[in-house]
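Known limitations

Files may contain more than one protein. Parsers should not assume a single record per file. Below, a two-record file is shown to illustrate correct handling: read the sequence, read the token line, then continue until end of file.
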Amino acid sequence: MPPHIVVFGSLNMDLVIQAPRHPRPGETLTGGPFRTIPGGKGANQAVAAARMGGQVTMIGAVGADGFGDELIANLAAAGVDTSRIDRSPEATGLALITVSESGENTIVLAPGANGTVSARTAWENEDVIAAADALLLQLEVPLSAVLAAVQIAGRHRVPVILNPAPARPLPVELLHHVSYLIPNEHEAALLAGLPTGAGEEATRAAAALREMGVGQVVVTLGERGALVYDVPGTSESAWHVASFPVQAVDTTAAGDAFLAAFAVALTEGKPPAEAARWGCAAGALACTVLGAQPSLPTRAAVEEMMHKEPVVLLTSLAPAGKMRNVCMLRETHG
């Protein structure tokens, strides 16, 4: 039986334009081509988890418009249960995305119907949250709704995986309900009130977040992989999980691919460091295709990439974030 993953969050239509670089303030650039692509961090994670083999239910809202129709149809085509998506009088959420030739992106959100997701939405879906093997959340819907959802999960002992993006200060009450907090290094530093930096600073940010009450912290580091902090069953404070080198085309949804693959692997019983390796493979593959949901890889593609390097280097980090030793983790696939 595949793991049942409930995603509570946003659905957007992405309006994507490619440009030679990102414009400076007051500057107009000629770009192209332009595409409309289904997106939204919540919907991205739902599609990605379904492609990884999870049984997925999406909770959120779209408008009663053509974009809403398209987003629901796209989720259903990926095998996601869309019966818990509300139709709002507000327009469907939009994301304006500029992708540079280097593959980096800038995003401006118009929340639309996502702003109508509320605590009531969460409580109306208590039954499906209670039956989940894991609850995935992001911060593109109102914080009050996210807090209600994690409270419901805590009430029913459902593990909570939170992607704190877009980053904002979070109440301790919310953090105490989070089983796995998965920010990128910039989000981790902001949440912890620390400067952004590589290696040592990411470890310090993770340690600070653990002290704030989070269950475990996994910091995504882009092309450098991921930092898994405070690994259960070991004496180590953190592991650096290496990523896979790819030629990046568009980094949109790479983080969502990581979250989904991590969630599916974790709910299948894999330990956090191994689940992070699955996430790194999925995130790397997502960078090789333009657009959010079109880039999300299948389980077969992720497994193929991981089989290319069956023995994985995991670097142990001392509490201050400095390398201490290296060990080997041998991947197995059923």
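...continuing to the second record:
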Amino acid sequence: MVSLYRHLTERLDRPWMLWTLFGINLFGSIYGFYWYKDQLMMVGSWLNLFVPDSPTASSAFTLVLLLYALRRRSPLLETFAAVTLFKYGVWAVAVILLGGIASPDPFVKSLHWTDWMLMASHLGMALEAILYSRFYTYHRQHLMLVGGWTLLNDGVDYLLDLHPWLPASIAHMDGTIGVFTLGLSFISLSLFAALGLPPREERKWDFRMIGI
């Protein structure tokens, strides 16, 4: 298992790996926005900026992968992608599992095949964010900016009721889910402060920086 992990991490920045994951994340992001189509049409305003949480996160990471493949980097984009990719990856899995547990039907029977697909893809999102943390080049100010956006997003989601639609079995728990989401934001920011700020020899300082 250790050798398999080392084999994987040593190839994360190979061009073939970057382009493969770029394609996978691009497809997943497009599908994610399609998944939110009904909610986006219902909101139908500039507030749609806050609606598609997961596909926005995966789109940001798709761009990070593209930049790495082109030997470019954007510290702020790295920060946004890492924090939100992990946060919403974990969030989706937790909410789907909680919805299945709270359902009056047997747990396995309560989950559709799309639920299993979503859990697998969102676990992959969280894992990607962690695995690529060895390359990130952001600083504390980037985490502060992303932290401000993340907390604003939480406030809009749960004070204006723009959060992703919850499973019917836990729809009445939106207040509790909101507290969980806020806590997950702080966990995600703390995690990527610990993973992304300490110096590592793999960090892509030699890539040309674009943006801030």
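Parsers that stop after the first record will miss the second one. For reference, the second record is described as follows. The chain is about 70% helix and 0% strand.
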